[in-house]
Design goal:
alpha/beta; D-Maltodextrin-Binding Protein, domain 2; six-stranded mixed sheet; five-stranded mixed sheet; 2 domains
Length: 323
């Protein structure tokens, strides 16, 4: 009976493999959307538009970034997780939705490992501590001194509750023994507009979010939040040079819904890696304040799991309870 069952399944299995290979050879036959679970103007938006333009050229079909902000990225991430696994809906995400929120929300409408098929990392960027020019500080030491003199009066923006910029602000307060006020926004773009408009005094932003405004003189950059000085902004000290323990970096990666055929994942990975290796794309990403990176699907999957463990430990140590 078991042999008969296996024999009955064999033609169907072979047929599915042939169909999958054929679909990968012809894929894509229509436009592809990349969901960006954030508002226009932030790091996901800037990086996603660069990637979409590059993939449009290499795949021969229109690739469009679709901004779907809300709930700090949860809405767009859920939408991507529940999309048909046919290769025509992808997601470009930042770290928080996949590796932070599982530790800060008691219930999420998606699972960061089970519900996605990683394709490749795309870019990385240190978070940069940016202040409004009216704030009389030029260094982290200046900021700490001012915040101690004005407890709970300095307001910082983030891209949403429990986002990495929010956690960076919390770490800054803990390590500096200061108290500030936090205002969450729906993405890096709205947060940047808030600081440009003087609604808030500072924020931790990615390069694409704050560097162009700093070059125009509308923001002042005082430090980066990576473990070492930035290659693109080597003149800026790290926050850890003044306050050890305040280390937060951003990364962006492209994923598909779980169940997307391996052949399509492999093709998307190959085209993404090729696009990221293009000197023009590397320069575009650098101009946006980030560094182009890529990976295999397996490497990206392992990285997500390692980041999940790292942030779980950091959030537990910081005593931040889930909501």
């Amino acid at each position: 009976m078991k042999r008969a069952t296996a024999a009955a399944w064999l033609p169907a299995t072979v047929g599915m493999l042939i169909l999958g290979a054929a679909s990968a050879q012809t894929y894509p036959t229509r436009s592809i959307r990349i969901i960006g679970p954030s508002s226009p103007g932030g790091g996901i938006d800037a990086t996603g538009r660069i990637l979409a333009a590059a993939l449009t050229q290499s795949l021969g079909q229109q690739v469009v970034l679709e901004n779907r902000p809300g709930a700090g990225g949860i809405i767009g991430t859920e939408l991507a997780a529940k999309a048909p696994p046919d290769g025509y809906t992808l997601m470009l995400t930042a770290a928080a939705a996949l590796v932070v929120f599982p530790h800060t929300f008691s219930k999420l409408p998606y699972d960061p490992v089970r519900d996605f098929a990683p394709i490749s990392l795309v870019a990385s960027s240190e978070y940069i501590l940016a202040v409004h020019p009216s704030l009389p500080v030029k260094t982290v030491k200046d900021l700490v001194a001012l915040a101690r003199a004005r407890p709970a009066q300095i307001v910082f923006a983030s891209t949403g509750n429990f986002s990495l910029p929010h956690l960076a602000g919390e770490l800054l307060q803990q390590q500096g023994r200061i108290q500030m006020l936090h205002v969450p926004y729906k993405g890096g773009g709205p947060a940047a507009l808030a600081i440009l408009g003087g609604e808030v005094s500072l924020m931790f932003g990615t390069g694409p979010t704050v560097v162009p405004h700093a070059k125009a003189g509308r923001l002042r950059l005082i430090a980066t939040a990576g473990g070492k000085r930035s290659k693109s902004l080597p003149e800026l000290p790290t926050v850890t040079e003044t306050l050890p323990g305040v280390e937060v970096s951003a990364w962006y990666g492209v994923l598909a819904p779980a169940g997307t055929p391996n052949e399509i994942i492999s093709k998307l990975n190959a085209e993404t890696v090729k696009a990221i290796a293009d000197p023009k794309v590397i320069q575009q990403i650098a101009n946006a304040g980030a560094e182009a990176v890529s990976s295999t699907p397996e490497e990206f999957s392992a990285y997500i799991k390692a980041e999940l463990a790292r942030w779980g430990k950091a959030i537990k140590t910081a005593g931040i309870p889930p909501v």
